[in-house]
Amino acid sequence: MSHQASPSASRIRPLLAAALLLALTLPAGAEEKKLDSSLGLIPADAAFYGSMLRNREQVQAVANSKTWAKITKLPFYQLARIAIQQQFVGEQFAEVRAWMEEDENRNLLAMLTDAVSDDIFCYGSGNWVDFIDLCQQMYSGMRYTGPIEQLLKDPNFKDQKAMQYAQIRGMLRVLARNPKKIKFPDLAFGFKVKDAKKADAQIARLEAMAQLLSTLNPMFKDRVKRTKVGQDSFLTLNFDGEMIPWDQIDWKDVEEAAGEFDGVRKNLKKLTLTISLGIRQGFLLFAIGSTAEGLTALGGEGPRLTSRAELKPLMALAEKRFTGIGYNSKALAVVSQMSKEDIDQLTVMAEKALDAAGVAESKRKSIMKDLTGLASEFKKSLSAPGASLRFSYLSERGYEGYSYEYGEFPDRDSSKPLTLLQHVGGDPILATVGRSKNSLEQYQQMSKWVKIAFGHAEPLILEKIGEAEKKQYEEISKLVFPLLKRFDEINAKMLLPALADGQAGLVLDAKWKSKQWHPQLPQGGKTLPMPELAVLVGVSDRELLEKAMKSYGKLIEDVLVEVKKHSPPDSQPPFTKLPVPEVKEGKAGKIYLWRLPKELQADARVAVAAGLSEKVGAVALSAEHAERLLSAKPLKVEGGPLANTKRPLTGASYFNWPVFVDALSPWVMFAVEQAPLDQLPTPGNAEKKEGGDAKKTQREVVFFHVRTILDALKAIGISSSATYIQDGAMITHSEVVLHDE
After folding, report:
1. Which residues lie closer than 8 Å to 26 by C-beta, 6 or more apart?
2. For 576-619, what is each residue's pLDDT tens digit?
3. Is 78 inside any structural domain?
4. For the whole model, what pTM was predicted?
5. Coil, strand, or helix at residue 247?
6. Which residues of 395-417 are buried (b: 16+ CB within 10 A; e: fewer)?
7. Is 171 a member of any domain?
């Protein structure tokens, strides 16, 4: 910036006043937001990127916390620390200490510590898309295409070695069809360093050792080089396909025609691999790729990943103290999931498999007609994938973050609030709730194709079995098929319509306690909690759901009757009637209770409990828990993603770590009480008290340690998340609350 003669003070004051007034009147968003991280190096066509940020800051926050201070004051911690220090100063670590005392090695350790302290990232270039696509095609060739082609030649599978060659042939033919994709993709790991000169000095040390290795081993001669990447110098180690003796491999067994894979061999010989190490724009880079040229994209010219529309949510929060960022491209998502072309290929392979099985042409045509129809419906159900973004940052309460999945989500419903969040018991240990749609339509489609598939499979099976087996099959069919038809009708006409609301959830709690859960559990009179696991569903038609449950019960009883009729005496079911449940009218709905048999001798409250109200269904392990879930009680959260549970969501999760620790602690302490503690070393402050018992004192010290650690675990508070669909993305907002007391 050029310097000119300073204007007079009288002229400066109005300018400063105008600038200040402009700054105060501009909106906050007018200030340019900058994201100081390795993300600025990444080109827009990256296949994937992930980073860990503020690593030293996070470690120091833990080290300076009150929670960690409590742990470091524990006698056993001090004892272990002293023992480690004494071991390190011993003779067995003399060489290690001598190595660490050398200046160059101290600098190396300091550099490595610095490298992992701030910003670590992993980057995959756009050519990873072709590489993954090639790998998937090769897997398909090995797993399906090659073996099916071999089965056409050898339907009885007599030559097992030929099948192995067929698998190799399937992969090689993929390589033959994709010569341009036969190359190593670019992968880089980066580490931000404060002092590039110190890092360069350590790379020079490594270079000297690598050059020495190359002189001792002819295989590495002229392969250790210095390579220019833009204006930067990188130490590189180069390999190529010529190092592998491809010509010594006998290709005759895998080639069906002479020279079939000559082109593949030539391409494999041309294959190159370069390992690079160097400094670029303040980052120590370790990279693998076909050449070092791929590194020019990092921090080079052209659009950056930050310019992509998918990263707008991240850039809008650029002032946050990020701890992690991740990204996967749409192109990577497309090749990572099943495509329409994959379905077509599976259809072709199915036709070949039918041919190999010797299915008659008329039947084969009929099967393929239906199979083509199934493939067409399946292709219509495929949703378009998109890029994904995720990031987390430090907040005043702990950690907060977002994930964005771009694309189409036809099975997710984000149009209404998750009312089941009002039925998780208020403050459970764990609660997950979600809403989907099209369950009935999907079931009907699946049922239709199962029937079609069976219609084709049945005659083929009957052709292969004898008359006696056919007769037995017909007898079984007369019994089983009507029962299966009833099962299908209950599902399609009762259960799924009754659950059209689409909500489902899982709840874990531990509010019930007992002094004797089971006679064989020696609790010694101690009151211990037990996990309470329950499943929740949203109910659209209570009467229809009750009808479905009664129909299932009658169906099961009819099955038991038929099994008893057609089974020998020693293998008949012990009963043909299901136990009749106790029915209780609770405040929020009906509770159906099936108590456990007396011979199990569990606590009397343990039972299978089904609760049902107009809008909620619950299956729990006790009547108390089922009734608690039917009652509407708001989830206890203070701020965070679930602060407003009445907004439209497609998914939500909640985990209360302190409550979980409180439920676990009595069992941990109970286990410690049963443990033999007399063999443990006694810390210095646990000496025998006057008139006391040394073993008892030692046991008390152990209890103190365990309780302190359990209390420390409660520094992790509530974690919660809310998922919703907005602007073509499924967004999950998550938070982990931390307490340091």
Report:
1. none
2. 999 999 999 988 999 999 998 877 778 889 999 999 999 999 99
3. yes
4. 0.88
5. helix
6. bebbbbbbbbbbbebeebbbebb
7. yes
